[in-house]
Specification:
single chain, about 240 residues, alpha/beta, Rossmann fold, six-stranded mixed sheet, four-stranded antiparallel sheet, about 40% helix, globular, binds adenosine-5'-triphosphate, binds magnesium ion
């Protein structure tokens, strides 16, 4: 299988505080790549480096054959890197459809006509089509998470970044999210999915990485990673946060 993303020995952080420490990993085209790790270990920061919110001080990020390490966030978005935010950020006063349209027109740079097509497609994939006229501020948490994914899809990504889209949901709702991720995988997206619920990750991912202190601690087949001694130690509090 081809590779869609490679992190090579990446160091990155905020100001002088380094959060990512020599982080290396590789995501294959079409796979669901899970990322777990204790609070504050740098999972969201890895996404920030990947989309261009922060620029690494060392190492390389290769996306779809291109070195994007220092590329501007907008340009990366147009190359097909699309993210969700850990805390959903819809425009509350706008409808579900309008939220998606903004992503398609401003994120992906589509004309309004093409943007409408892409936005409606994204709403179908996330099962929000019937709620397209509802104001985003009136949505339930599950639907806000769906909208967060739909907005990312509105930018027409090849690589979709999901940051704790299942957090705060009931068990039944988490199953809905798992189904949605499976649908997106079948539709051909490559996906990196950060989540804390390890059981969910074992069922839904092809490869699983556990991060600790900004590095990759264990990577491999999800069940093996879950059962690894190192991962157990980290989750039982063996490693302190960077904070
Ligand atoms: N904008 C920022 N400026 C300064 N420090 C930050 C910023 N964002 C995050 N940090 C710090 O970077 C470290 C890693 O944070 P990050 O959000 O990447 O963790 P995480 O693994 O996503 O944690 P969680 O599981 O809680 O979401 C933490 O110590 C955090 O306080
Ligand atoms: Mg996070």
């Amino acid at each position: 299988m081809d590779t869609i993303l490679t992190f090579k020995n990446v160091n990155a952080g905020y100001g002088r505080v380094r959060i990512l420490n020599d982080l290396s990993f590789e995501v294959k085209k079409g796979e669901v790549y899970g990322v777990i790790g204790p609070n504050g270990c740098g999972k969201t920061t890895m996404f920030n480096a990947l989309i261009g919110l922060i620029i690494p001080t060392h190492g390389e990020i290769i996306y779809d054959g291109k070195n994007v390490t220092k590329m501007k966030a907008n340009d990366r978005c147009r190359l097909g890197i699309g993210r969700t935010y850990q805390v959903p950020r819809p425009f509350e006063g706008m409808s579900v459809f309008e939220n998606c349209l903004v992503a398609a027109v401003h994120g992906a740079g589509h004309s309004e006509k093409e943007g409408r097509r892409v936005a409606l497609e994204a709403l179908k994939l996330t099962e929000l089509y019937d709620k397209r006229e509802v104001r985003a501020g009136e949505l339930t948490l599950l639907d806000r998470k769906r909208l967060e994914i739909a907005r990312a899809l509105g930018t027409e990504p090849k690589l979709l970044l999901l940051d704790e889209v299942a957090a705060g949901l009931t068990e039944a709702e988490v199953k809905d999210v798992m189904k949605m991720v499976a649908t997106l995988k079948d539709a051909g997206y490559s996906i990196i999915w950060i989540e804390h619920v390890i059981e969910t990750m074992v069922k839904s991912t092809d490869t699983l990485m556990c991060m600790a202190q900004g590095s990759n601690l264990v990577v491999g087949e999800p069940l093996e990673v879950m059962n690894s001694k190192l991962v157990e130690e980290v989750y039982l509090g063996g490693v302190e946060d960077d904070e």
